[in-house]
Amino acid sequence: MQQTTVRNFEKICEILERYERNPAKLVPILQAVQAEYRYLPKEALAYVATSLGLPPSRVFGVATFYAHFALEPKGKYVIHVCDGTACHVKNSEGLVKAIRKKLGLSKEKNTTDDLLFTLETVSCIGACGLAPVLMINDAVHGQMTPDACATVIDKILEEEKEA
Amino acid sequence: MNNTMQDTQNTMWIDNREVPIEGERNVLEVARKAGIDIPTFCYHSDLSVYGACRLCLVDIDGRGVNASCSVTPEPGMRVKTNTKQVRDIRKISIELLLANHDMNCPTCVRSATCRLRELAERMGIEKLRYKPVHTPRAIDRSAHSLVRDPNKCVLCGDCVRACHEVQGVGAIDFAFRGADSAVMPAFCHNLDAVECVHCGLCATVCPTGALTPKPEIDAVWADLDNPQKVVVAQMAPAVRVGLGEYFGMAAGAVTTGQAVAALKAVGFDKVYDTSFTADMTVLEESEEFLNRLNTGGTLPLFTSCCPAWVKYVEQYHHQLLPHLSSCKSPQQMFGAVARKVLPKHLPLEEKELVVVSVMPCTAKKFEAKQEKFNKDGKPEVDHVITTAELGLMLRQVGLQLQNLEPESFDRPLGFKSGAGVLFGVSGGVTEAVLRYVVEKVQGKPLEQVDFHQVRGEAGLREAVVKVNDTEVRLAIVQGLANVEAVTKQIRDGVCPYHLVEVMACPGGCVCGAGQPHSFNPAARRERTKAIYDHDRTMDFHKAQDNPELAAVYAEHYGEAGGHAAHQALHTDYQHRRRLHELDLTVTDSDQEDKVQVRVCVGTTCFLNGSQELLRKLVHYVERTGLQDRVEINATFCMENCGQSPNVRVGNTHIEHCTFDTARDALTQALNPDISSGFAVSP
Fold first, then answer.
1. pLDDT digit string, tens, across residues B610-629
2. How do residues B99-121 score in pLDDT, each as one tens digit?
3. A4 touching B, CB under 8 A?
4. B72, B279, B341, B568: which has the fewest C-beta neighbours closer than 10 Å?
5. Which of B90, B60, B98 is nearest to B76 (CA)?
6. Which residues of B touch A51 (CB under 8 A)?
7. B232 and B198, same structural domain?
8. Set of chain A residues whose Cβ sits within 8 Å of the Cβ of B619
9. What was the ipTM of the complex prediction?
């Protein structure tokens, strides 16, 4: 499991302060914590629950309800392949297959062992004109092909190597 | 909606019958008043309206099909509860639930009282039209009190709301989503690893067998079958007004003599009454109360009979532990007294004695298993069975309670006053204590033993009793969430009470989770009335008048509240952590001989600045380049909240820790050869 770092911990405290430890702000707090860790470690959930005076079961319930929240570590680069109607008919499935093949992922395994990539499908990101479309973190890549997927991933791998 | 005609009449129409609206919160309650039992899983009058199960649907003129639990009655409203559409929707809901149900009804303890089974029958469902999709999930048997079987859950959420709203605990909640939805403790933990207080209210409100009291019948049979053992029973006050319902008698039927006969019939050697030690509790607790009152001790005094309440204080209000009466509960006092008195009295060898409790309660199962009541491997109380389990044992031998000739309790531990019987209801402990305290302070026999001002049904009741010139101010709480108003007053230094009685279950022990399952809303009132009636028929009403109790004191314990009594009949309390195995590692190192620093960030330490302390320690370790040699963890509760903030450096525990003391301890741990008192330079 990914370790909490000093920076993470400070950040959680900061997030809690920012939302004035208000239990009604649980969802934005969890979003912010997830932005920090890229997932929600249960230790962090427990800490948030204690700080907000909520039962941990309730915080766990909220964290497991929303698809956005992850309780397992996600990769540094989260690839969201759109599988809305428009993208689906434009072969989004082919993109998923290509990315899985490229990264050695499968239906059951969504994150690479080096915690660099996570592959997820989403139902429409509202860019149907660019179908088939995918997002890597905040960057949108439109009119993708299976080959283009591999190229984009190679580029990221290249950058990571240099860094 | 056209309601101009009826506006002034304040009535509505249900299935073409005019029904008055008399402050009902929703259409469902109006319909029930009219004698129509609208089916529902998730509606419970003590809980908030949830509207999830969609069984209480009715057709409202002008509005269409609505959940009747969620619609406020309005004058002139026209409601049909039995249209084809409504029937069809209800039936499909049940069919869909059954398609995802584990259907092991013959082996389910709730099959006779299961709402799902009953409704399937009522809807005339004869075969399953939908393909079963149930995949088995693990059953949680970790707790001593309850069994959680997610395979039988219908997701009505009654348990979630009961735990959260009535008890203020929230040990369980919904998790995951859609087809994966489940009710469970946080992080998929088991019940024994979370803050569950074992009150069993979840099991009381559960319409199916998803949450049930954990049975101990087999262990009891094993001891009853063993010729080397002498098995004695103690029966709690509430059992005598609950057991009858298990055999179809009216709610509140008093079956004391038959319950004794039942225990004898299944093979118990002696049958005693927990009311005897409830009388004893009255003496001990009253003396403790008077002592605190006269010497300026910690007030208000909290009662300590309810183990769910005790665990609640231990978990959430460690700073209030000194308020808890040090008296053991009547169950545990009985165990201690039986082991002291019976070997000589019966006589028998100490190791032959097996003590079994019959309790209306699931938390008592947890209480009896605690380490502190289990010295040298011998528990004070060996087994705890519920009222319903006793009913089942009787049925296992093929007997009906109604057909048994009443028998008497054995003496001396079966003789009690009405005070000891009152322990079964909310307000009863207070009243029993008053009967002692007022008489003792006034120095003359108490004529009027009933204290009606402490009786009632509200979740938090106040009463003032004048004793000579002093006003004794009392609070009676049922439902743990209601106690928060009092704890806040204490924290703010404005608590007016001298004595606070708390019982987790609304209604007190007579409505405990171990009582036979009942959907009868009048049961609470009837059982309570039965206890008060029972008290009225007794020879003695005051614990201090119990001659057998006086004899036991004289022979074994001396004065009530004295040294010997204190040794045997009192206990102490501990802080309990709510979260297990959830330390947050802030800095880590791969080195083997690293020093582990654990900073408590549980609620109290947190409030006392442990977060800042943690921050400073982390910066110190970074600044001095010790990252490789030190691992810092944030941990949840070291169960020492009175001395917060708590820090552990290696094996050294530091109370009231400051940055300086933590730094010195760390230096010491890193350099065992040099004396402490200065920091290492980077």
1. 878 888 888 888 888 887 88
2. 989 989 999 999 999 999 999 99
3. yes
4. B72
5. B60
6. 606
7. no
8. 6
9. 0.84
